[in-house]
Amino acid sequence: MKTLQIMKRSRMWVSISVAIILIGAVFYFIHGGFNLGIDFAGGTQIYAKIGRDFDVNEVRGMLNDEGINATVMRAGDAKQDALIRLKDNPDIKTQQDTVIELLADKYDLNIQTEFSSEFVGSTIGKELYGKAVLSLAIASVLMLLYIWIRFELMSGVAAVLALIHDVLIMTAAVLIFQVPINSPFIAALLTIIGYSINDTIVVFDRVRENRKRFSRSLSRNEVVDKSISETIVRSMNTSLTTLFAVAALYIIGVESIKEFTFPILIGIISGTYSSIFIASPIWSWMGDARDRRKQAKLAK
Higher pLDDT residue, 215 or 68? Predict the structure, then answer.
């Protein structure tokens, strides 16, 4: 098998990621922050007992024509009722009344008996956000310890930095495309952390084997190139299989499903990229820096 020259362009791979993250930061200021959904910003949920089949896209289009940006999904045991979610805004009461009137006229519903609504505060969203950050921190520490024990500290640090890379890339993507950040995004984020670290461990396991086998004949960069070349087919096959399944779900899924599958799609691509082009180069650079420090001490 031909050995890929990954380390030869390692700075370029990292630069691509840095550019995407910086673009995301620019969009953060352009849009004035994240597009927080109802789970984080608060808002109103309207439940309409339609009781028969209806077209979600038609309802969404009808609301868009009135300038109402809402999440529309099926609800109820038979999925024949509608759940409309409005993000908190100064005109939310007017929008709520408009939604109820439009649906009542469209499906001949009784406003008094076939509609219900409730306000969702942002407090729950803030609590969810805090728990998500805590979960991410705990997961990172535990994975660092695991990889440190199984491999070495440098591998653990490189793997955690690759995870941070994936989180930043996913965040940049939702900023660029203004994807609403709701609880599905948090679920997708935590899912990708587990997915990405598995791919990274596969590469590091091969690096460890080749490091022992070719420690005298190959440099650290050459070991990395050889290890990636031997595992890249396995990584790509696994990622593409998962990517196709999630992409199909994104294409045919409803809006609420897309809020989960879009970050997953980005995360799969980013996780595969970081396992190959980010984690291993970072490990190699850290090793070179350690060698230079040792040489400097000996020179003294």
Answer: 68
Looking from the CA of 234 toward its CB, the CA atoms found within 13 Å total 13
Q: How far apart are CA 143 and CA 139, in angstroms?
A: 6
Mean model confidence pLDDT for the chain: 87
pLDDT at 132 over 80: no
Residue 256 placed within a domain: yes
The CATH number of whichever domain residue 260 belongs to comes to 1.20.1640.10
Q: How far apart are CA 206 and CA 216, in angstroms?
A: 17
Q: Edge-to-edge, what's the strand order for the sheet holding 43-48?
A: 70-75, 81-87, 43-48, 115-120
- Left if phi > 0, otherwise alpha if psi is -120 to 50, otherwise beta: which for 72? beta
Q: What percent of the chain has pLDDT over 90?
A: 34
Whole-number pLDDT of residue 296: 81
For residue 181, give the DSSP letter: B
